[in-house]
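Dear colleague,

Following up on yesterday's call, I've attached the two folding results inline so they're easy to grep. Please treat them as preliminary; we haven't cross-checked anything against experimental data yet. The first protein's sequence and structure tokens come first.
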Amino acid sequence: MEKRTIEELSEELSGKSIPDLFLKRVKSSPGEVAFRYKDLGIYKEVTWDQYWRHVEDFAFGLMELGLEPGDSVAIMADPCPEWMYADLATLSAGGMDYGIYTTSSVEEVEYLMKTGEARFFVAENQEYVDKLLPVIEGLPRLIKVIVIDTRAMFMYDDERLISFDAVDELGRQRKAKYPDELYQRIAKINPDEPAFLIFTSGTSGPPKPAVLSHSNILKGFVLPCGEVFPSLLTHEHRAVSHLSMAHIIERGLSLYCPLVYPFIPHIGESLQYMQETLYEVQPTFLHGVPRIWEKIAAQAIVGIESSSWIKKLSYRWAMSLGRRYMQIKWKGKSIPLFWRLLHWAAVQMAFRHILHNLGLSKVRYAFSAGAPLPITTQKLWQIWGVDLINVYGATEAGGFITSQRPGFPEPGDLGRPASVNEVTLAEDGEIMVSGDGVFLGYYKNEKATKEAKRGNYWFTGDIGEWRENGTLRLVDRKKDIMITSGGKNITPSAIETALKASPYISEAVLIADGRKFPSALIEIDFETVSEWARRNKILYTGFTSLATHPKTYELIGKEVEKANQLFARVEQVKKFRILPKELDPEEGDTTATRKIMRKKIYQLFEDLIEEMYSEKDERLLGSQVNQE
């Protein structure tokens, strides 16, 4: 693939649709590898020419079944080749698509199908078909349910069911009759018209379908990737596809970045084996939401704590040196030769082995997005040698809003704006974004669109502040800022993020609004806490018995104390309770992306919350009010 500058790439993307770029890539490098996927233990390569043939067959198949320009296709699957074929086929045929998270419940699937007005539903397997069939009679617009893996479908006889392979075969037959039809549809695509929908997380209400055009994603995500990570323009990179492709990050990286960069996604055999996939692929580019970075680090730390005393001693020595070395680097000072030599020794003795075992020794670029990244998590990865940066983005912005730049930036901010969008603050500090990446609006929801987009700006709902060095700092969600009964403003996300920096805490929900003091509901990380329990010979029978064990409360209490040291006294968590069950998106405990719905959590665990505030003076006052 020819090398070019970011300015040349910007010019190349202007006026182009995603299928335009796909066709161009196929013609310029037909025999080069487009992506790799693991099947039955073996990685298989798909070249750009093979990629096109798969997309072409499925696109013709959809047209044969009745897909018209503007129609929508819903896809419910983990990352797999068929997700990629279905997406580019739909877009090439003039349609638009959207992903449905595999953790969605039956009720959520029904809502998403109706709201997105899907004409086709692509399901990875029988499990996801079973989430649609109970509500299928209420979806009169639906034409076909297309199943990728049909091995468990032998007892199903609904006439709307059809296999992915059968759609391909229909496509090959139609292509033989009308060989130029797909090219004609691609030629008619307007880059400024809708390409796909991405549903918002729905933390404060039903998810809203944000409409993004071809230009939105290309200018708001693909182009800034080359700006923030410049060697994408000049060197080949390996990545692992592990987030849902319903998420804008995975969609942008795995589907659209390869169209213009020598960027090769790798799909593992299962998301359950992500650690194995990382080790096999040894990616040079790795992305993830904060929880991914936290979990991988937590597993590594637990492994270290379970190792021999000499390894633990070596690690602690290396960490002591690493912290001091990075403190110098973060301050932008010149690092003395003495410290460079000591750091080299720390890398050789400890850090390189950690990264090698995690499959991250080759990583050149790494970023976290989707939620606030705990400062301690970012610091840890940087000390280990991974140049992890913070990216602040949003679906409605087309992807990037601001980003730190590679080079081991000091943790604690969101970096500077990407050149594609203008970022400014309203009088109350709300972050506003305008530019080519900003979405078209919410699908057939003019009221919500007008509330979010005013003039040329999209109002993010986040409160931010500019730092002296020109970087942006996120304060909190505008609607989430809490006020205690004593009148103190509390920003919950900062405290929750600090708590979740612990390897033993999976989720934390702060309670403070109208209360005398902050408290927290905590979900333990079962994997790391169970390993801790095993090392300490603590008996338990399952999640609930471990979560409610007195020793577990002692462990989490120490982690809460560590987090409290980062905050003023009035912001510190005074009491906490551990949730007796794991939060499950399929049961509606969280959103499909495991984001917290505060009102729902408050309702579910009202007794635990009230227990923390049930003090004698409150009971006394209550008894007086309730006297007859």
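Below is the second protein, in the same order (sequence, then structure):
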Amino acid sequence: MKCLGSTVLLSLVLASGAAAQSFWYVDVAAPPGGDGSWQNPYDSIQFALDQPTTLSGDSIRVARGTYNEQIDLLGKEVHIGATSGPMMTIIDGGGLGSTLNIVSGEGPFTRIEGFTITGGVGQPGLGLTHVGGGLFLYQSSVTLRHCIFTDNQALMGGGIFSLGGNLNILTSTFADNRATIGPPGSPEDGDGGAIWAADSQILIRNSFFNDNIAGGIPLNTEAQGGAIFVSDSSLMLLGSGFDSNVATCNLSGGFALGGAVCAVDQSIVKVASTQFHNSIALADMARGGALYLDTGQLDLEFGWFTQNVAGDFLQVLQGEGGAIYVTDPSIASVETSWFVENQAQSMGGAVYGVGYYRDCEFIENQSRNGGAAYASWTADFGAMTFDEVRLLGHETSWGEFGQRDGGAVHGPAFVMKSGLYDNIAHGMGGGAYGAYLFDCTLQGNATYSMVFPAEIRGGGAHDCWLYDCVIFENTAIGSRSMGVFSYGGGVSSSFLQGCELYDNTADFGGGGVNSSLDRVTINANHALITGGGMYFTFMPLVPHFVTNSIIWNNGPNEIHDAGGVPTVTWTDVLGGWPGLGNASSDPYWYDEANHDYQLLAGSPCIDAGDPTVFDPDGTVVDMGAHPYDPTYVP
């Protein structure tokens, strides 16, 4: 009996739950006066929502067709689904306001699925003007699935405006939405071509944003987020794509921030498996061709950034961060991502500012300074860090705007366990300018100019700090017939410790110029004029020293002093050089021809360095880049 009673009670609960959810049907082709049944559907979505019999938890099923109406969910937590999908089922706001309005506290089970949302122009609300062309979301929740937002416009949030909203967007498309209109003479800026959000939680998965525009309004001073603008919000982008979005400001001296995404005011942005292509920030001050972050947090992995642009190379504009711009103070972590053929008008062809980049590829990006990256000089040293990245084939643009420095990296970035290959600067620092490099390889970089006057210095690096690096086959190229000379094929005006320099070339100082060396090996470099190994010029405020090093078999000579008066001590120099503890003996390398500079047993360079400095094994420091290792096997 007890078991029977429980079974009856369970049946009653299930029956009650089933009765709580009703299905209502809508067909624009149906005659007016329907009852919402499958046989006699309503002819309007809004009419279905207006009915007192439509309750939270109900489902409204909509037949194919174009529904010319603006919809307000009236606080009802319902599922509105198109039975034939977005290509066949369209809600057109007709230019009369926001196409969808979810503004009455609708809860997290609210869903809209399978529609094209179009023709929205936003509406006044909450003291704002023309917001949320396609959807106006206020302190409510909604999930959008398999929807297309297209040809909507507003001043803020051409596709969607969310204030205090909880928004989930799944497998949807946002195309040709614009945050570009407002009342005549409106002072507001055009922000968020597809989405504008503040104090909101946003999840976007497997969705695409293309050809959305923010800005371009006469008299506006700032355009933010060609596709998405968020303030004091959390934004998660998963498996999505951005293509050809634009943030643009027409006013002289104006700003364009984030061609695709702009996040400000403590926003937290998480991105995974997402592509940003051909987005543009265009203004006199353009920042972040794809993504702009100000005073927030970014966590990004498996991102693809290709052919994004900050600035306009046809005009004299200030463009920074062709792909990403991150302000200080912000926290940005980018891992296992690719940056290819992005451009910035002035600084940071791919990235600008601060951030930690690990296991990333930077390929053929371009800017006037910092072909791949420009680290903020106002932030702490190392606020931009590259860890196990590859920087390949970048170039600083050159011409009437003057000198271009830092072929790959410009500024006080930390670059660790990375490779800088085949980068070009039309000025100083073919690989890097002003950076700190640890355990890196610099190969095939160049700095050159045919324009007088120009300073051509540091084919591999200029004004850098290099530790345990291998620097080879770099070149500084001038034009002697035009009075443009090159200095430091490997490095110039830098500090080096534990490094190798070989097969580098310049007019003066094949290996380096005006640099200080500790435990460095310099071999087989070539100067077209003089100073095959090192070249020193007069610099009264910057004394240079060379210690515990080997300078051997460079051409046409090892060291040339043109008034720099370097202090050379405890160093092995072919042909000798005056100074305490210096030597001129074959260093006995393992394989000089193949640039294996490990010391062989019996080398005169073992324990021959400064007697007050010690190797890790506790013995007196050896000369050259590598302490003697009796167990070494190549």
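For the second protein, one point worth flagging: The CA atoms of residues 404 and 486 lie 15 Å apart.

Best wishes,
A.L.
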